[in-house]
Amino acid sequence: MTSIAKPPVKHPSSRQNGIGLTLRDYEGVMSTLCAGCGHDSITASIVQAAWEMELEPHRVGKMSGIGCSSKTTAYFMKQSHGFNSVHGRMPSVTSGAAAANGGLTYIGVSGDGDSLSIGVGQLCHAIRRNVNMLYMLENNGVYGLTKGQFSASADIGSTSKKGEANEQAPIDPILLALSLGATYVARSFSGDKRQLVPIIKAGIAHKGFALVDVISPCVTFNDHEGSTKSYAYTRQHEVEAVEADYVPLRREITMPETKGAVTVVQMHDGSSVRLRPTAPDYDPTDRESAYAHVRACQARGEIATGLLFVSEGARDMHELARTVPTPLVDVPFEALCPGQAALDKLMARYR
Amino acid sequence: MSGINDFAFKMGTVNGTGSASANGLLMQAIFRMGIPVTGKNIFPSNIQGLPTWYEIRVSKDGYTARPSEVDLVVALNPATYAKDVATVRPGGYLLYDSSWPLDPTLVREGITILGVPFGRMCVEAFTKDRERTLLRNIAYAGALAALLEIDMQVIEGMLNEKFGKKKSLLDANHTAIRLGYDYAKANFTCPLPFHLAPMDATGGSILMDGNTACALGAVYAGATVGAWYPITPATAMMEAFKAFCEKYRVDKATGKNNYIILQAEDELAAAGIVIGAAWAGARAFTNTSGPGISLMQEFIGLAYYTDIPAVFYDIQRCGPSTGMPTRTQQADLLSLAYASHGDTKHLVLFPADPHECFSMSVEAFDLAERFQTPVFVASDLDIGMNDWMIPRLEWDDAYRPDRGKVLDAAALEKLPRFSRFLDVDGDGVAARTLPGVGGKGAYFVRGSGHDKHAAYTEDSDAYQEVVDRLKRKFEHAAAAMPKPAILRRKGAEVGLVTLGGCDAAVREAADRLQEAGIAADVMRIRGFPFGAEVAEFLGEHEHTFVIEQNRDAQLRSLLMIELGVPRDELIPVLDYGGMPLTAKVVVDAVSARVAGVPA
């Protein structure tokens, strides 16, 4: 029942952002996920990020496929336009929407089943196409809606609730994205809002495909001893590569003083993301070192988190297709139809 | 047949050796002589080395169907000698390459065999291997020009147009065409009894294939997003769309494109892109063939159930599974009409030729947006890939797209509440909003159960209310579909019902039947769902034949299901071997039945 409406009560202390909206204005209908679901925490982070970025809700397309994670697009930004499509196919629907109207912000939400099994092809090709979108992969290693089967991100040896061990190698979406040339690759943990919110904001500001893999424990089917996607396991094994701070355009930059060199990546819209390596030799703008770091963590049984790789120079889908700056939906018909005179002239070629 | 401007000839060659351009040259030259002409390319699913044929029919009366018999065969592929010699009509001619001794398989009683040493002459005249192979084709075109009296000035003019800027190529082609022409003139009685004489019957016509015409229609309709996955025989449509867009859709001020073409990873993604783009408000389409339609089923259901306009071109090919990709059929009718699981019904257009491909291409986008639903243009390989002689295309500059019911911010302002799937007008079409519009306009598209307000539901009544509205919408669409094309004859007791590319053969068959004393009315169905005119026609004749190119009588099934016509009242005439239909198939089937002779 994903249409349960929240009571429209305004908390007197709710702060307004720069466009006069409160956090509540960025919320959606009541979640129907299990109590304690990691996905709900991610939803809260999306709400927070959108509020902080002052996104106009009606200029946002919320895109999803099928699964627990895909249901969550109903739980944030109720004034945004939502498209809950078919299983594993959100990337193509979003590609089409972005092709037609590149003027909107697209937030895609998917899960490990939706993205790494049925939809792994579409994910790969949306990365290759470099669709300008945020792609949230809410990763719990398990099929929740169908009650507990392993997903393609389940680690070898990870056990199901019934105790059965997974024997197939997992697909790591971070390594996949890095190898496919993705230009924004991050991983976080649903329980770590401090880390996740800036990653989401920078991902939205990123021009091109921004993959955010979020370990999101399934409290019902995959939060037990033996699971490598549980709260306990993730908290114990998380290794943050970089701390990210997103600095929007028009805001005075007031960053706390920190140790170590800070990398500032300028986003296409003038905002910036400041990355502070927690490992001394980590360079988040170098694909090779990002890959090596993720592999090294994996070998030690650790989970690399943070904004692992970012490159702001690549051309997105529209630049690759050399389309006009006006969204195609706004190009007037007169500019699209060649008319009778052109047709008359063309006919000579077919004589 | 077999007379002045009334005959057919066929070239049997090996694919990938350059024969296609020589065959095209011959057909176009005849067309430019003012004589109605048709060409059918029968080619393999292969890049080089397999048999290919090209049939050219000349018809002073303007018949454009595939010929029932062939007067002259040019046999240049030893692998198909036996088959090719067998297709020559009794009393007809065979032309072969006499550079080598006459193959015994080519010898047949009752036909005239003409040998021209094409290979040897080309080896003597040209030095490069590639030239020798390619120009052998031009040489046979020259011999045919002599035998059939094709105007050499026209041919040479066309060579100048084609190779004008490449002097060496031009000279070589002129040499080759003369080699064949001069040899035939010197050694045979030219022309043959059947040959050409200039007419003035093609001035208002063009030669165009259906894929080109569909693409041009999409450009004129204002489509901005094209998504596809390459597949025979649909590929050329997107290639043509791209070429037209490069010509007409580059913004002069910025040099940027007013269109985007996405070659997707598969047909599923192509359908997803179209649906996403159409949801966002663009006119979007994909072009594919039967296997692609199979892959798109789930997405088609989504678009249907969520009222999203989308245009799908199905350039049908032969068979289930991979089938015969380079052969034609009309075997996707049922899978289009009811595509996807659950209760679904779709709008389908059936163009008969490239001329209608152009107009129906535009119509498809209007219908899709007006009824907010997927629309299929059911072309086929024969229409899509062969050049057809059709009237020049025309355009009305007053045309503006029918965007259907779309609420903008101002319209939303006046509403107390926006309910996406609420049927206000009683026609089953609910007003939509486009992403980006503010105020009350936002809603949540979902393929899962939803009520008229677009909210999730598992409630029986709320679910049924939505699917009943979709049914109502479908029923309303019937009156908006193109009317059937009906040709009546006085006192007709026979009704011939057909669709799509069968049209030319069926109309020709009606003429033949008339000569045999059987008057037949013809109804060509142009759209699904069927309008009232279709139902009326079906009850009018003592014998009603349904002629189509599939094994299972799919059009007949649709007529039975949708109109309740009893099975026994519709006599199927089925042709499904993958070749374009000939009038003979229809004449034989009808005369056998009507004359009381068991078929």
Would you kindly provide a written description of the structure presented here, covering whatever features stand out?
The complex is a heterodimer of chains A (351) and B (599). Chain A is 28% helix and 19% strand. Chain A has 351 residues and is of the alpha/beta class. In chain A, the strands form three sheets. Chain A has an eight-stranded mixed beta sheet with strand order 2-1-3-4-8-7-13-9, sandwiched between helices. Chain A has a three-stranded antiparallel beta sheet with strand order 10-12-11. Chain A is globular and about 75 Å long. Residues 252-258 of chain A have low confidence and may be disordered. In chain B, the strands form four sheets. A seven-stranded mixed beta sheet of chain B has the order 9-8-10-11-13-12-19, with helices on both faces. A six-stranded mixed beta sheet of chain B has the order 2-3-1-4-5-6. Chain B has a five-stranded mixed beta sheet with strand order 16-18-17-20-21, with helices on both faces. Chain B has helices at 19-32, 81-86, 118-125, 129-148, 152-163, 167-187, 210-221, 235-248, 267-280, 290-305, 333-337, 354-371, 381-385, 409-414, 460-477, 503-515, 532-538, 554-563, 583-594, and strands at residues 6-14, 37-42, 51-59, 70-75, 88-97, 112-116, 205-209, 225-228, 260-263, 284-288, 310-316, 347-349, 374-380, 387-391, 444-446, 485-487, 494-499, 520-525, 527-528, 543-548, 571-574. In chain B, α2 links the parallel β4 and β5. Chain B contains 19 helices and 21 strands. In chain B, α16 (503-515) crosses α19. The longest helix of chain B is centred in the N-terminal third of the chain and has 21 residues, at 167-187.
Topology:
The complex is a heterodimer of chains A (351) and B (599).
Chain A (H helix, E strand, L loop, with lengths): L37 H16 L6 E5 L3 H4 L9 E4 L5 H11 L4 E7 H5 L3 H10 L3 E7 L2 E2 L5 E2 L22 H7 L4 E6 L3 H13 L3 E7 L15 H7 E3 L1 E6 L15 E4 L5 E6 L9 H13 L3 E8 L6 H5 L17 H9 L4
Parallel strand pairs in A: 1-2, 1-3, 3-4, 4-8, 7-8, 9-13
Antiparallel strand pairs in A: 5-6, 7-13, 10-12, 11-12
Chain B lengths: L5 E9 L4 H14 L4 E6 L8 E9 L10 E6 L5 H6 L1 E10 L14 E5 L1 H8 L3 H20 L3 H12 L3 H21 L17 E5 H12 L3 E4 L6 H14 L11 E4 L3 H14 L3 E5 L1 H16 L4 E7 L16 H5 L9 E3 L4 H18 L2 E7 H5 L1 E5 L17 H6 L29 E3 L13 H18 L7 E3 L6 E6 L3 H13 L4 E6 L1 E2 L3 H7 L4 E6 L5 H10 L7 E4 L8 H12 L5
Parallel strand pairs in B: 1-4, 4-5, 5-6, 8-9, 8-10, 10-11, 11-13, 12-13, 17-18, 17-20, 20-21
Antiparallel strand pairs in B: 1-3, 2-3, 7-14, 12-19, 16-18
Helix pairs in contact in B: 1-4, 1-5, 3-4, 3-6, 4-6, 5-6, 7-8, 7-12, 9-10, 16-19
